[in-house]
Amino acid sequence: MRAVGLITEYNPFHNGHLHHLRESLKQADAEVTVAVMSGHFLQRGEPALVDKWRRTEMALRAGVDVVVELPFAFSCQSAPYFARGAVQCLNALGGVEALCFGSEVGELAPLKRCVDLLQEHRAELDSATAAGLRQGLHYAAARADLVTKLSHDASLSELLQSPNNILALEYLQALRDTASAMVPCTIPRLGAGFHEMEAAGTIASATGIRHRLAEDQPVAEYLPSAAGSLLRHALSEGLTSDPDLLHRLLLSQIYRGRDALQKVYQVEQGLDRRLADAALESNGWEDLVDRIKVRQLTRTRVQRILCYVLNDVSSALMADALETGPLYLHLLGCSDRGRRFLSASRKQRSLPLIANFSRVYATLKRFYGPETERLKQALAMLELDLRATRNYTLLLPGWSGGNRNRDFYQDVIRG
Q: What is the SS3 string spanning 358-408?
């Protein structure tokens, strides 16, 4: 069974994702789609609109065959780490022959040319972009400026201005760095841009859809019917993440004091004071981010740091995770076809696939061996994912009770 991999957030699943799904099957000449999907906290440092199981159900009803969770350590990260972690998951699952991603440019040749240039001048780029960042330039802008100087090709610089192109470059780089056997393919992003609020026909960005929901505007025309039904139910039951609850939980974490903040990943010297000062006067999530943001910190990076604060992510834990890559695969859902694919590709798998969390500790111990350093790292990565789930339940106004360790009690979603 030929399978194509997709790297996703589905926040929420919309018509653009459906187009990507269908075109990926065509481009890769595949029968099976395997999505690596972020869990409860996302790449731009925000909690997901709805929980990972509801988003999995949206995907399965639309035709995705397998959904595997991208662990928190990689899902709530800058583009290079996000891309690398997701590619490592697909590599480890086994049997995935292609990776298909959207891009604004819509073709591989210019993306590969840009990756070649970035690879050839990597040391020079790192040095120059660091200098640009010290002068207040954003990373993407600093890198684009140097690419233009090195290549004498303005089109490559323009390519680096678009968010999906930037992710596409990181996917290609991750495929190289991991010596992946997956063949890359890309499709043009359809309709509204990544951050655009305006729709194009029945295509709206996930950002635009969330903005419409915040303004109590209808969104049904931008989602497949099954995804729309699942989202409406979540909205009616108060099962979407609430920014006011997020703000209050963050304040409680920040109020633990600067000593605790200094142990959190990416809370560098001086930022602890800025966090503490902002928390004393902020009147909401957006206001808190605005008060913390400075020239050297993008809004997205501030949001990610706040997610690290909320989930008490230590620098040591994250350093280990980024060095090792994912250490297990969490199966969130699969179709009948997906189950057949997982069975057929089992011997190619290089990490344990966890479907039943009641046996997760025994599975990891058996795979890595008792009392090993790698087992300790896997358990630390697991605890962070479990903590993220528990904390996410605190963001849901309509949470109806039950055990907050949902990963242990939630069955794999069946398509």
A: HHHHHHHHHHHCCCCHHHHHHHHHHHHHHHHHHHHHCCCCCCCCCCCCHHH
> Which residue, among 97, 102, 141, has the nearest Cα to 8 in the 3D structure?
102
- Is 275 or 401 the better-scoring residue by pLDDT? 275
pLDDT tens-place string over residues 337-362: 999 999 999 999 999 999 989 999 99
- Nearest-angstrom CA–CA distance, 8 and 318: 22
Asked if the bond preceding 80 is cis, omega within 30° of 0, the reply is no
Residues 6+ apart with CB under 8 A from 126: none
Q: Phi and psi at residue 203, in whole multiples of 5°?
A: -110, 120
User: What φ, ψ does residue 16 adopt, rounded to 5°?
Assistant: -65, -40
Q: Are 32 and 1 in contact (CB under 8 A)?
A: yes
**Cα–Cα distance between 56 and 181 in angstroms, integer?**
26
CA–CA distance from 42 to each of 5, 11, 79, 159, 175 (Å)? 19, 9, 11, 24, 21
What is residue 156's predicted lDDT score, i.e. its pLDDT? 80
Give me 407's structure tokens. Answer: 């990963």
Residue ranges of the domains in the chain? 3-104+168-194+325-414, 110-161, 243-316
Give the DSSP H/E element, type plus range, for residue 67: strand 66-70
Long-range CB pairs of 289-297, under 8 A, 24+ apart, other chains included: 295/136, 296/133, 296/134, 296/136
What's the rounded Cα separation, in Å, for the pair 210 and 206?
A: 6
For the chain, give the mean pLDDT: 93
- Encode pLDDT of 224-254 as tens digits: 999 999 999 999 999 999 999 999 999 999 9
Q: The whole model's pTM is what?
A: 0.94
In words, the CATH class of domain 3-104+168-194+325-414 is alpha beta
Mean pLDDT over 360-378 rounds to 97
**Type of residue at 302:** V
Question: DSSP assignment of 291-328, as one string?
Answer: HH--TTS-HHHHHHHHHHHHTT-BHHHHHHHHHH----
Least confident residue range of 184-193, 256-265, 345-354: 184-193
Q: Of 130, 46, 75, which Cα lies nearest the Cα of 303? A: 46
